Amino acid sequence: MSHVLGPVPLALEDELFEKFREIERNYRERRWEPAELNGGKLCEVTYCILRGHVDGSFPGKPYKPANFYDACLKMEKEPVSLGRSVRIQLPRMLIALYEIRNNRNVGHVGGDVDPNQMDAVCVLHMAKWVMAELVRIFHGVSLADASALVESLSEREVSLIWDTGSVRRVLDNNLSMLEKTLVLLFGSAQPLREVELIESLEHSNPSVYRRDVLRRAHVDRLIEYDENTKTVKLSPLGIKRVESKILPKAQA
Using CA atoms, how far apart are residues 194 and 187, in angstroms rounded to an integer? Predict the structure, then answer.
């Protein structure tokens, strides 16, 4: 992914977009509660970006303020020259999004309201607004162009993956075994177990798959393959391969 947030350190930008992608993954897979939890994480990264912009010095990594509500309210006291969006609109949106994460039975047992699709829809679209507004502010484009950019950065492999309930299938049989593997990893919010990939791909020979796909992809730094734990994680280079080559080819 290109560096789209101007002065924001790439580490913070990458973390921001990863949390946004996790929200979309969980929403698409109807995992409403994780979608809301990750909405809270996105709030914290966004706050750190805004705080760093105001202070003129960005933190090295995201952190959680001791009192998120008060920290966001204090932004309203910053100089007017920073703009209403940075001082008021974004912080207030973060407060609302964080409220859903904390007080809608998300992460708590015995609450009055269960996490449901309505909450997840709210989280998803509020997160998209936050992302678009950050791009508009730091990239210097219109809100419409920022929204289009965020949509273009959204996951687009939904048409390639079918979740049957027990296993996930890649529907484009023209893709190679490596490409199918990368797509499955791209569509997962967490690293996948080797056995999950083999089951999804219905590879007839696990040893050959391990040798010809996983180990080679690991050497090429497309994935991180841990042979001890038998887990596989997509690397930034692998993400770039999926976004720039596999998805465009599959959607052509």
Answer: 15
